[in-house]
Design brief:
The protein is mainly β and 142 residues long. Helices cover 12% and strands 35% of the residues. The strands form two sheets. It has a six-stranded mixed beta sheet. The protein has a three-stranded antiparallel beta sheet with strand order 4-8-7. The longest helix is centred in the middle third of the chain and has 10 residues. The chain starts with 10 loop residues before the first strand and ends in a 22-residue tail after the last strand.
Length: 142
């Protein structure tokens, strides 16, 4: 990935899948070791009180030496909520859900960490730029 000045950046778009096809899975910034994912509020999984992170992405993040996860959740009014958690906490406390085994082949195996373990940042309004959100395409439907 290159910025507008032509300099190489350390941001990597990670790939996952949806319905058996490649799908964007968020951005990992090598210099900060932070993974950022933007997703709609409808992705919230009520039974686990959590937003999903695909297990194949988690495996990539392990190999990349990730230290922090940041979610930018876009609400229906256009505002966003940001949540962050240390990667090791996510690995230790998250729950795996094997969607293909449960009969839903649209999604890969996913990990869920209840929001109680995430730190919530101040909400942002639709006209404010998210740190990396303007570079992150929204994920495929949930």
């Amino acid at each position: 990935m290159q910025n507008t000045l032509g300099h190489k950046t350390t941001k990597n778009m990670l790939q996952s899948s949806f319905n058996g096809r490649p799908a964007p899975g968020g951005i990992f910034e090598e210099s900060t070791r932070i993974y950022r994912k933007q997703l709609p509020c409808r992705a919230f999984f009520w039974p686990l009180k959590s937003y999903p992170i695909d297990a194949p992405i988690v495996e990539q993040l392990k190999n990349l030496g990730c230290e922090m996860l940041v979610l930018a959740v876009i609400k229906n009014d256009g505002c966003s909520e940001r949540y962050s958690v240390k990667f090791d906490v996510f690995l230790e406390k998250s729950t795996l859900v094997d969607w293909p085994q449960k009969g839903d082949p649209r999604f890969p195996v996913r990990r869920y960490l209840p929001l109680e373990f995430w730190e919530k940042d101040e909400p942002r309004f639709a006209n404010e730029k998210e740190d990396q959100a303007d570079e992150m395409p929204p994920d495929i439907p949930f």
